[in-house]
Amino acid sequence: MSPMEHKTAGVPTLKRLPLYLRLLRRMNDEGQKYASGAVVARELGIDPIVVRKDLAITGAVGRPRLGFQIDEIISAIEEFLGWSNTTDAFLVGVGHLGAALLGYQGFEQHGLRIVAAFDSNPDIIGTTVHGRTVLDVVQMPELARLMHVQIGVLTVTASVAQKVANAMVEGGIRGIWNFTPATLDVPKNVILQREELASSLAVLSHRLLLGRGSD
Amino acid sequence: MSPMEHKTAGVPTLKRLPLYLRLLRRMNDEGQKYASGAVVARELGIDPIVVRKDLAITGAVGRPRLGFQIDEIISAIEEFLGWSNTTDAFLVGVGHLGAALLGYQGFEQHGLRIVAAFDSNPDIIGTTVHGRTVLDVVQMPELARLMHVQIGVLTVTASVAQKVANAMVEGGIRGIWNFTPATLDVPKNVILQREELASSLAVLSHRLLLGRGSD
DNA sequence: TAGATTGTTAATCGATTAACAATC
DNA sequence: TAGATTGTTAATCGATTAACAATC
């Protein structure tokens, strides 16, 4: 009940919160003042009880008959995820995927600002990709320390992933968003988030094989 | 026990299977003949009991003391995921992300071959991206039917996602890999796999906020 | 008041973890 | 034989689903 206390949520809940947030922001843009968990559930095709439990964990309080005041529930979710203030991030590896992520405008709405991009390829260093000059990766750890960068986005080839991850840790980076297939070894206090396309594809492939839809 | 019977696996298991597969292929390339679940577990930082259960579901049989014969276990996982034969896919939306996915060589190892790319932008139609000429999206449904394409990779902007998804369904596509933030409405027999970067980021952000590492 | 929605408590389900017998 | 590993059975944990009282 203390104001700054932070409940911990399960991974399934955390993964659903951004979906609610996106919908609620849209409803807010449309000028609506209240949103009920029931409506959110219907719109997203999620069980209403799940929505209620998820929203409850953010600490938001709804009103029977009306639902949640939209600006309040949006703030509650943002606070809970740490998205009320943007966190600075470095991106290392400006290949196709890295460039695509640099070009994605939506991250700021999710509390992430990629403030600089790095590569080791001399042909890429010095070029400008989506408004950011690509710097030499050797400068990365020092700059990370200087700028107190918290998150590293890792879009290099698998063979150098561990080396770059080490450099990120050296630079004081606390969370690594790993888009490579490499299994990384980092100190226990560093948070790893793996983005595994193969895993998603496996779920799709297996379901396709079973021939069962989204029921 | 019938030869073509297919057990159904939970999502967590399905997401881990590609990790095992990648490691086992590498061990195979290194000339190893046997791999124990224990070694796989150690290498990937996963509980050995989980690995044993996951491998068991593919139908593979190991030998005490030795482990699994590598070529057999690789085949078992591939069969289970439907990755022993590649499935043809169409990609629609050749923006930054679409181009990045077209450039990714690894999909064939995961049973996916993107055989054609489509867009609606006249400036992009006709250009060649990573060896594939971009076609007009109006041709997509007809070609999908003709070529019996099973999977559609959706990398368009959110505002046209539903329309393109409808066209994919019209073309007989059975599984849609949705890289847009849109919530899609498709017939029950069509399988949706959503790739939600915001969800991954939410998990990372929340953990960062709690200050707890990967323990 | 009547009715829809919240928030909580209980029941069910599935995944993870633990324990151990079987096997080579 | 001894010992490592498989495969199975049981226990625990957490998430989902169900039921219902409280509230505006």
Account of the 3D structure:
- 2 copies of one chain form a homodimer.
- With 215 residues, chain A is α/β, with parallel strands linked by helices.
- Chain A folds into 2 domains: 11-81, Arc Repressor Mutant, subunit A, CATH 1.10.10.10; 87-198, 3-Layer(aba) Sandwich (Rossmann fold), CATH 3.40.50.
- Chain A is 43% helix and 17% strand.
- Chain A has 8 helices and 9 strands.
- Chain A has helices spanning 11-29, 37-44, 48-57, 70-81, 96-103, 140-147, 158-170, 197-210, and strands spanning 34-35, 68-69, 87-92, 112-119, 128-129, 132-136, 151-154, 175-178, 191-194.
- In chain A, the strands form 2 sheets. The first copy, chain A, has a 7-stranded mixed sheet. In chain A, strands 1-2 form a two-stranded antiparallel sheet.
- In chain A, α7 links the parallel β7 and β8.
- In chain A, α2 packs across α3 (48-57).
- The first copy, chain A, is globular, with a radius of gyration of 20 Å.
- The relative contact order of chain A is 0.09.
- Chains A and B meet through α1, α5, β9 and α8 of A and α1, α5, β9 and α8 of B.
- Chain A binds a DNA duplex (24 and 24 nucleotides) through α3.
